[in-house]
């Protein structure tokens, strides 16, 4: 079956929006030299994609997911990932079933190639799976030279943060202090903020050690929920 012939793709094409199709390439930076270069868009909103993912996830096979994740259209890949998350959360009952989904996800990392694709799936699949296992794979991703693999590694730890485990995130945030890309500054700052929401003392300890070395974007994201006077204090570093 060709990607364009898959029923999930057909359903997405029924709810396209021409204005969104024109806007998304700019929003997701698809111009030459930009991080989303060459990506294509149908013009389907995320709420519509979630509806379609919910209606398809239980019937999609491994081969379906492989086909959909290779699709040239961004929304097809995102809808497939949303469906894969649902598959993992709702139908994968055994470790064997979960590992099959994780192995599929890992085999398609090159297709998880924009921030929304990463952020909608990394913690829910990889973070969940590796929570009670050796986390070396996630640390390996966070040291990658590939932008999206680094973000996947960092965002996967969001699952750990929600379980009040912070050390993996802190290690990754330290090692990306000198990363060249703003999207990594945003991701690491966001995760630091989430740590601070649960344990402010842990965030303050990180800031006391690293605020002077942090990219401004990372710092601003990390202290976003602080009172204004406290934010101003940290921004003087």
UniProtKB/TrEMBL annotation:
Q: Which InterPro entries would you find in this protein's record? A: ARM-type_fold, DNA_alkylation
Per UniProt, what is one Pfam family of this protein? DNA_alkylation
Q: Which CDD domains match?
A: AlkD_like
| Protein name listed in UniProt | DNA alkylation repair protein
User: Which sequence ranges are marked TM in the entry?
Assistant: none
Q: Which PANTHER family match?
A: ARMADILLO-TYPE FOLD, DNA ALKYLATION REPAIR PROTEIN
Query: What species is this protein from?
Result: Leptospira ognonensis
